[in-house]
């Protein structure tokens, strides 16, 4: 379960909680088998925290207060960047079919054009960082981490290859705000967005 940004503070998370580019996108949530357990866990971890200036002091309401029959749902099966596999599509379609008679309406929608910039603005800018891995290396030094899984080693190669100057960084930050504005407008007429989180199962 991925809560709204700012609802759960990032304080104390590994490899670091000192902020940075990725902090504006980072959100932590719980994993559980049942929705009831997720809601209980969220009530424990949510709330403003002096260690995270981006955490927001908002009231967490119970799901019982939501009238499901009034919800407006939007969905897309393909984001226009990468198509999900058959299992992912089948799972999402089944969820849409189950939800359809319970809500106000479900509408197929198309992601904004700027969504195609996700890899550049999110992955390359905020996670790879453009500093050839300098900050990540400093974080590993603090934790004493020296060995990594083969999959993580592949990501580290991408991190070390990522490089851009401060002018390009400023441009990307402006584009990131445009990206967020586009999605705020995109969500204006819907309460829930259903879409693949990744193209394949975990």
Summarize the structure.
The protein is mainly alpha-helical. The chain has helices spanning 35-45, 86-99, 118-128, 134-143, 150-161, 166-186, and strands spanning 72-75, 105-108, 192-194.
Question: How does the SSE layout of this entry go?
Answer:
Blueprint: H1 35-45, E1 72-75, H2 86-99, E2 105-108, H3 118-128, H4 134-143, H5 150-161, H6 166-186, E3 192-194
Parallel strand pairs: 1-2, 1-3
Task: Describe this protein's structure.
The chain has helices at residues 35-45, 86-99, 118-128, 134-143, 150-161, 166-186; strands at residues 72-75, 105-108, 192-194. The protein is mainly α and 202 residues long. Helix 2 links the parallel strand 1 (72-75) and strand 2 (105-108). Helix 3 (118-128) crosses helix 6. It starts with 34 loop residues before the first helix and ends in an 8-residue tail after the last strand.
Beta strand count: 3
Order of helices and strands: HEHEHHHHE
Kindly report the spatial arrangement of strands forming the biggest sheet.
Answer: 2-1-3
Largest sheet: 3 strands, parallel
CA distance, first residue to last residue: 14 Å
Helix content: 25-40%
Rg over alpha carbons: 19 Å
Shape: globular
**Mean of the pLDDT scores?**
88
- Note the beta-strand portion: 5-15%
Number of H/I helices: 6
Quaternary form: single chain
Structural class: mainly alpha
Low-confidence spans: none
């Amino acid at each position: 379960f991925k809560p709204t940004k700012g609802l759960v503070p990032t304080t104390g998370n590994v490899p670091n909680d000192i902020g940075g580019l990725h902090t504006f996108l980072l959100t932590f949530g719980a994993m559980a088998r049942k929705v009831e357990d997720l809601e209980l866990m969220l009530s424990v971890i949510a709330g403003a925290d002096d260690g995270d200036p981006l955490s927001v002091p908002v009231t967490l309401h119970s799901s019982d207060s939501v009238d499901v029959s009034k919800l407006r749902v939007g969905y897309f099966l393909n984001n226009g960047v990468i198509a999900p596999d058959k299992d992912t599509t089948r799972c999402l379609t089944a969820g849409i079919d189950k939800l359809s008679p319970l809500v106000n309406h479900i509408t197929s929608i198309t992601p904004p054009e700027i969504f195609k910039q996700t890899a550049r603005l999110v992955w390359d800018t905020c996670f790879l960082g453009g500093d050839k891995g300098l900050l990540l290396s400093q974080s590993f030094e603090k934790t004493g981490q020296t060995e990594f899984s083969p999959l993580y080693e592949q990501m580290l190669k991408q991190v070390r290859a990522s490089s851009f100057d401060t002018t390009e960084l400023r441009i990307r930050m402006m584009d990131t705000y445009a990206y967020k504005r586009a999605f705020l407008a995109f969500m204006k007429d819907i309460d829930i967005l259903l879409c693949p989180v990744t193209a394949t199962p975990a």
